[in-house]
Specification:
Elements lengths: L1 H6 L4 H5 L4 H28 L9 E5 L4 H12 L3 E6 L2 H13 L4 E5 L5 H14 L5 E4 L15 H29 L3 E5 L12 H23 L5 E7 L6 H4 L2 E3 L6 H13 L4 E4 L3 H9 L3 H11 L1 E3 L3 H10 L6
Parallel strand pairs: 1-2, 1-4, 2-3, 4-5, 5-6, 6-8
Antiparallel strand pairs: 7-9
Helix pairs in contact: 4-5, 4-10, 6-7, 7-8
């Protein structure tokens, strides 16, 4: 046995050596060589880029019954788009459609649970019959409910949150994406969250779902790049939005909750400029990158200063009391 160990030593160093060092070095050198020209090209493109025209295009928005979803539906209607409103709240969704019709817009509302794939298919067929193919899909629908990871009594919250926030986007995208691929045209938008970059301890399931959404969009972006597809992806990561008073009244934060109209305007502008990913406010992207390289103790200190806490449910408080230990220096 001792001879065998000596004959085939497995060390971390052996795993850190590339399989083909010369090839990797040349590829990395080429990458660095073209890095500056690529930055210059991207900068010029950014300066010259105009907002695209969506007049006459079909824009589908989930979670359109209230808050940010309603604001986005109204904003795209006022830009001349044909609007498809999708929400499980039939009354609120019809109200959004009524406002659009009152302004002379073209809209159709669907009372739909986005976790039901068969109903998504039926809705998509109806939209194609009435309006034609969907040009822009805005995945906005989400549920926000407090739960802590160590509380086993909130398992149903975990299931519902993942089903709506992450799987719902998967099923919407998988239904509508093939039509966009066939036309080599279209735009898919995911409303994610800053919590997809920094976890929030009182919203463990919501945080997990948003990380899943952002990761899903990055993976899909790589696939579309492999296909040389012109389908555009946008991931929006806002800070907490004052979209639902029932939710925001339970949020404790040293940073201000974002007004819905401000988030709507910035989101629409980013979509029209075909931005790939951005945070709202914009400075949070770099701030989070800085946060990630800090020592753990410094991260916890920043969390206490700028972090967000959602009001715990009773069972969460009980579990915290059960497991919490005294602070040690």
């Amino acid at each position: 046995m001792e001879k065998l160990k000596n004959k085939n030593p497995i060390t971390m160093k052996s795993y850190s050596i590339p399989r083909n060092p010369v090839h990797l070095f040349l590829a990395l050198f080429t990458f660095i060589l073209f890095l500056l020209p690529n930055y210059i090209s991207a900068g010029i493109k950014l300066l010259m880029e105009n907002r695209k025209n969506v007049r006459g295009q079909v824009v589908l928005i989930t979670g359109s019954a209230r808050g940010l979803g309603r604001q986005l539906a109204l904003a795209f209607h006022r830009l001349g788009a044909l609007i498809v409103c999708v929400d499980v709240d039939e009354e609120g969704n019809e109200m959004t459609a009524k406002i659009i019709r009152g302004e002379g817009g073209t809209v159709r509302a669907f009372n739909l649970d986005i976790t039901d794939r068969e109903k998504i298919r039926s809705m998509h067929e109806a939209v194609k019959d009435d309006f034609g193919p969907i040009d822009i899909l805005v995945n906005n629908a989400a549920v926000v409910k407090p739960n802590i990871y160590v509380n086993s009594k909130t398992d149903e919250i975990v299931r519902e949150t993942i089903d709506v926030n992450m799987l719902g986007q998967f099923w919407m995208n998988k239904e509508i994406l093939p039509s966009m691929l066939n036309r080599n045209s279209g735009h898919i938008v995911s409303m994610s969250s800053v919590t997809s970059m920094v976890g929030t301890h009182s919203l463990s399931a919501y945080t997990a779902s948003m990380w899943g959404v952002t990761g899903m969009m990055e993976a899909l972006d790589q696939e579309l790049n492999m296909l040389n597809s012109k389908v555009i992806l946008t991931t929006v990561c806002p800070y907490f939005v004052d979209s639902n008073k029932g939710i925001t009244k339970n949020i404790s934060s040293n940073l201000p909750i974002l007004p819905t109209n401000v988030v709507c305007d910035i989101t629409v502008d980013g979509i029209l400029k075909n931005k790939k990913m951005f945070t709202i406010p914009g400075y949070l992207f770099l701030a989070i990158m800085f946060y990630k390289i800090l020592p753990s103790k410094s991260q916890y200190q920043l969390q206490n200063l700028f972090g967000v806490c959602y009001k715990y449910g009773k069972s969460d408080y009980d579990v915290l009391k059960k497991y919490q230990r005294e602070t040690t220096s």
